[in-house]
Specification:
Blueprint lengths: L1 H10 L26 H6 L2 H23 L8 H13 L3 H32 L1 H14 L8 H8 L3 H25 L3 H9 L4 H12 L1 H26 L8 H10 L3 H29 L9
């Protein structure tokens, strides 16, 4: 009996000593609602961070251009800003931008519609899945610029040729990302939709699209970037489309005249439009959808 009691005392863990903590005086903690400094407010704003990055890049551009001192090869940022202002106010830049955006919207919308049709077919049938996988593997690596000669033969020199190459650049990126997003929808959500009696188009609209929307949005971003650069490249090769030149033709024309500042002004317009679309349109869509739903941070 004694040995058993001693063995139990040896196995039992040692008792922790009791102690009391002194209560802290909460009057000395400080102001928990202290306002942020100006730098903290600026650094916490993503728009201001982007502006600061652009200011730093413009300063480096200006300093390097002043250092090499060759306006024909590399004009300064101030010279490009002046050329951009004059081309926009008294020149043809804004009208060229409007022409390019009009063609871009037509091609981008047509590419999204074709991608939606292929994706719905792939989700509905096995043959559609095999068809989309095969066509994506065949045509997605094919650069849109390589189809320019065929587009000229089939549609002639004009807007239909440019729309054709834009559709090619948008279709496969959007379809591939959308189909991948549909495949990654959890089985629990699929079964929940079926238990509620959702079938066909209602099942796709209410279950698959919201669950796969991050991948769909990524595909739309990639498709937009492909469409925008394909359009500029096509206008550089095609030249004037239907008697009117777009932004790519503005760049090409000023290059022939050795107006390097205007060439940089056209390139700057391409960048500004890309920043506005990415920072305003797509960021607004993200804020009202995937971020609001808690699917992205």
């Amino acid at each position: 009996m004694t040995s058993r009691t001693e063995r139990a005392h040896r196995i039992a863990p040692p008792a922790r000593p009791e102690y009391e903590r002194t209560i802290l005086d909460d009057t000395n903690i400080g102001d928990a609602s202290r306002p942020l400094s100006s730098w903290q407010r600026l650094s916490g704003n993503p728009t201001m961070r982007t502006v600061m990055i652009l200011v730093v890049l413009a300063s480096c551009w200006e300093a390097y251009a002043r250092w090499i001192d060759n306006p024909l090869m590399f004009p300064a940022f101030s010279e490009v800003a002046i050329a951009l202002w004059h081309s926009s106010v008294g020149g043809p830049l804004l009208s060229r931008v409007a022409i390019s955006l009009k063609v871009l919207m037509i091609g981008y919308a047509a590419g999204i519609l074709c991608a939606a049709a292929f994706t719905i077919l792939a989700v509905s049938t096995r043959i559609g899945t095999d068809l989309l996988s095969t066509l994506t593997a065949m045509f997605n690596p094919l650069p849109a610029i390589a189809l320019l000669p065929l587009a000229l033969l089939w549609f002639g020199l004009g807007t239909p040729s440019i729309v054709f190459v834009i559709v090619h650049s948008v279709l496969w990126a959007v379809a591939l990302n959308t189909h991948t997003g549909f495949l990654s929808v959890p089985e629990v959500q699929r079964m929940a939709g079926m238990n509620y009696g959702l079938r066909g188009l209602r099942y796709v609209m209410l279950i698959l699209i919201p669950a796969a929307f991050p991948s769909i949005l990524a595909g739309l971003k990639i498709g937009w970037a492909f469409a925008w650069r394909t359009l500029i490249a096509a206008e550089l090769v095609f030249g004037v489309s239907s008697g009117q030149g777009g932004l790519g033709w503005f760049i090409f024309e000023n290059r022939n005249y050795l107006e390097t500042a205007n060439v940089f002004a056209g390139l700057t317009a391409v960048i500004i439009i890309g920043l506005l679309v990415e920072g305003v349109i797509f960021r607004t869509i993200e804020a009202s959808t995937v971020r609001r739903w808690g699917m992205q941070r």
